[in-house]
Amino acid sequence: MIRKTTTFQVRREGLERTLAAITEFVAYVSANEPGTLRYESLQEKGDPTRFLHVFTFTDVAAERIHSNSKAVEHFIRVLYPECVEPVVFTDFDLITAH
Fold it and tell me: Can you give the residue ranges of every domain in the chain?
């Protein structure tokens, strides 16, 4: 399994556009990527311009399918211009889970 997070902050004036893009993107992932076991988008309570995405892929092939999809390409085109700083991707190893 491959586990990752993404963090980013968007400009306040781009918040509505970002939320719409996230909703559309996660719906696509859910409907079209069986190898993406988890994709969550979390919005920070104290600062609604900050986001954390948590995702899990079954394997490298599933991650590649996700990364190379037209949906990711579209999401990036919408999201990146709204970002205050570059998006940060982090890989994780599972220690334990409930």
Answer: 2-92
Radius of gyration of the chain (CA): 13
Structure tokens at 72: 């990711």
Structure tokens at 6: 């993404």
Task: Please tell me the CATH code under which domain 2-92 is placed.
Answer: 3.30.70.100
pTM (2 d.p.):
0.92
Q: How far apart are CA 41 and CA 5, in angstroms?
A: 10
Q: For the chain, list the strands marked E by DSSP.
A: 2-9, 36-43, 50-57, 88-92
At 39, list the tokens.
Answer: 């994709």
Q: What is the pLDDT of residues 29-83, one digit of tens each?
A: 999 999 999 999 999 999 999 999 999 999 999 999 999 999 999 999 999 999 9
